[in-house]
Write a structure and sequence with these properties.
By secondary structure, this protein is of the alpha/beta class. Helices cover 28% and strands 11% of the residues.
Length: 290
């Protein structure tokens, strides 16, 4: 079972051995929402299921069953299970998720499957680029044409294996030792110098900043566990890893930090999925800059 990262050769071995497996292409471009579908249509791992951030991994804004607010609200666990059943995913399968954007978007599905109680899910280290560099074969075609030709499965929800934190909890614990916030946005957005997406610039008071891209090396692979641990230890400066709550703009790019902490042996930490986009739109909550 792979639960954090999987290499391209390891994925190839699973495919060759015909292990129970489903691979998901989560490629997405925030400012060009249709680009992920186009990237998938051009080339993807054969048999891969398309998992689009907007269509499959987020609820409709304002949906009564959404599990979070913010720009990309989490769907309910029940809605996630319905989608997984519709594509033929079941509890026996190893899931592998990848994208072309430095694990920015595939991490969302990695977290969501854990949240649904499914431990056997891993991020393809190095993403699509690593698959090509390994010599992996590719297929082409639009997502609709690649829909699995198998009956609906019987995926069953299990107790959540990840911790979802909500705005009220973050606010009540603000700047207390029981909570350490880590913001995964780029430093200029964190400091409030620019804000291209949300109505207020800045960050949650007391939050530390670690842009999610800092987890990767120059070739797009996650840094070695020992290096990641040293970097997080420096960032936390004595704060206990178990107090960490990750967030970003909309709860998506925070996940690479959460995954990196787990790879580093620091445990599975919490996610504030509503993130800055929910926080700064909630009346009465403080915002900081600098």
């Amino acid at each position: 079972m792979y639960t954090t990262l999987i290499s391209a050769p390891q994925l190839q071995a699973l495919i060759n051995d015909k292990q129970p497996l489903m691979v998901f292409d989560c490629s997405f471009e925030l400012m060009q929402p249709g680009a992920g579908d186009a990237q998938y249509a051009q080339a993807h791992v054969p048999g891969t299921v398309r998992a689009d951030l907007d269509r499959h991994l987020s609820a409709v804004k304002g949906a009564p069953d959404a599990a979070s607010g913010g720009r990309h609200p989490l769907p309910s666990r029940q809605a996630l299970a319905i989608w997984l059943n519709s594509i033929g995913f079941d509890n026996s399968m190893q899931a592998v998720v990848y994208d072309r954007q430095g694990a920015n978007y595939c991490g969302r599905l990695w977290w969501m499957l854990k949240w649904a109680g499914h431990e056997a899910v891993a991020v393809l280290d190095g993403g699509w680029q690593a698959w090509l560099a390994h010599g992996g074969i590719s297929a082409s075609g639009a997502p609709e044409a690649q829909a699995p030709k198998i009956p609906a499965s019987s995926f069953k929800l299990a107790p959540a294996l990840t911790q979802l934190t909500v705005t009220d909890t973050v606010a009540k614990r603000l700047e207390q030792p029981a909570q350490t916030l880590i913001d995964a946005r780029g430093a200029p957005r964190y400091r409030g110098e620019v804000e291209p997406l949300d109505p207020v610039a800045g960050h949650i008071p007391g939050a530390l900043n670690r842009p999610f891209g800092h987890n990767l090396d120059a070739n797009g692979f996650f840094k070695p566990a020992q290096q990641l641990r040293a970097e997080f230890d420096t960032l936390l400066a004595g704060r206990h890893p178990a107090t960490v709550v990750h967030h970003c703009g909309s709860g998506v790019s925070a996940v690479p930090n959460l995954l990196a902490m787990e790879v580093a042996g620091l445990g599975r930490t919490a996610l504030y999925a509503g993130s800055w986009s929910e926080w700064c739109n909630t009346p009465g909550l403080p915002c900081a800059q600098g």
